[in-house]
């Protein structure tokens, strides 16, 4: 899902979401009241989009569960510290959030204490990152919109350095990256 900011007079920036399936095929259509013609497409980018959404949906469900559990425990702590500061709009580190720690992502990449964690939540985070990395590689290697699988077979299954993308619905693996 791509996001664009529209600025109108007298209003703050509003986020406009765009359909990722259409973006995979070179179209930039807003999601509101949109019936996507590519939602059943079986090309590689659309398959990766589905996997990424599935993993993210599962991850968000787990984060909500953790948030609810920790909010019940922290209710009395929040009352003791007075009103909390407004929450930051900065992105949070997903790996830290998996473990109940809210660290800002900025300047945190090599300092994350959970970057080598092997727990199930961090495994989901790594899988989602791999899927998104594959998606970017395929998009960049194409250079042009990917035809829908309903048309002739999609030739975009090879990455820029020529090795096939090793992807099955159950697992995602990457070939060694070029140096």
From TrEMBL:
Residues 93-140 bind DNA. InterPro entries: DM_DNA-bd, DM_DNA-bd_sf, DMRT. It holds the Pfam family DM. Residues 65-86 are annotated as: Disordered. It is found in: Nucleus. PROSITE patterns: DM_1 (PS40000), DM_2 (PS50809). PANTHER family: DOUBLESEX AND MAB-3 RELATED TRANSCRIPTION FACTOR DMRT (PTHR12322), DOUBLESEX-MAB RELATED 99B (PTHR12322:SF116). This is IDMY. It comes from Sagmariasus verreauxi (green rock lobster).
